[in-house]
Specification:
mainly alpha, 198 residues, 10 helices
Length: 198
C-alpha cells in the first residue's frame, strides 16, 4: 500500500475526529477530507476499529514528534521561570496548531472506555507525560517526586479540555486566560518557592 496515501488518510481521520467527533468518523467522511475516491479509506482500513487504530497510531507518532522537537529545540529549562515558560508554550500549542491532534486524542480516550485495546494503544501518550514532567521538574531544580509529578501532570491534563472549549468564563475562573500566569501559579502550588534543589 502507498504509505503517503495511508498517512494522508490518517491525517484526514484526525481532522474528521477533531471536527465531527466519534460519531462523525466514517470511511466516507475520511475519503472526503482526504480528497480521495470513495472507498479508499475502507480499502486501507476495512473496519471502524481499524480506522480508530490508525488514528491512535498517528496521534502517537505526532506526540512523539512533538516530544522529539522539544528535546531538540535547545537545552531544557534549568529554572522555575524557564519551565513555566515551556509549559505555557505547550498549552499554547494545544490551543493552536496541536488542537486537531489533541481533540482527536480526547475523542479516542472516550472510545477507549469501551475498547481496551484502544486504551492500550493510547497509554504511552499519557504515561509518557508523567516521565517527561518528572524530568522537566528535576532539570529545573525543583522537587520531582511522585507527588509533584502527579500533581503537575494531572493539573495540565485537566486544564486541556477547558482550554480547548474556550468558554471565557471558565478560562478566567481557571486562570487559563493568562497561560504564563497559570503555569507560574501551578508550579508555585506544586513546588512552593524555596523548595528548589540546591
Amino acid at each position: 500500500m502507498n504509505q503517503d496515501r495511508r498517512d494522508r488518510l490518517r491525517d484526514a481521520a484526525i481532522a474528521v475526529l477533531a471536527e465531527a467527533g466519534g460519531r462523525g468518523l466514517t470511511h466516507r467522511a475520511v475519503d472526503a477530507a482526504a480528497e480521495v475516491p470513495l472507498g479508499t479509506a475502507k480499502n486501507y482500513f476495512p473496519t471502524r476499529d481499524a480506522l480508530l487504530r490508525a488514528v491512535a497510531e498517528r496521534c502517537l507518532e505526532q506526540y512523539r514528534a512533538v516530544a522529539a522537537a522539544l528535546a531538540g529545540a535547545g537545552p531544557e529549562p534549568s529554572d522555575r521561570a524557564g519551565l513555566a515558560a515551556l509549559l505555557a508554550g505547550l498549552l499554547r500549542n494545544v490551543a493552536g496548531p496541536g488542537r486537531p491532534r489533541v481533540l482527536a486524542y480526547l475523542e479516542l480516550q472516550t472510545e477507549a472506555t469501551r475498547r481496551p485495546w484502544l486504551a492500550a494503544l493510547l497509554d504511552p501518550i499519557a504515561s509518557g507525560d508523567f516521565a517527561a514532567h518528572r524530568a522537566l521538574l528535576s532539570g529545573a531544580g525543583l522537587p520531582a517526586g511522585p507527588e509533584q509529578t502527579r500533581a503537575l501532570t494531572l493539573a495540565l491534563h485537566g486544564a486541556i479540555p477547558h482550554l480547548l472549549a474556550g468558554s471565557p468564563g471558565t478560562l478566567a475562573a481557571a486562570g487559563l486566560d493568562d497561560l504564563d500566569g497559570f503555569t507560574r501559579g501551578l508550579l508555585a502550588a506544586v513546588c512552593p518557592e524555596g523548595t528548589e534543589n540546591p
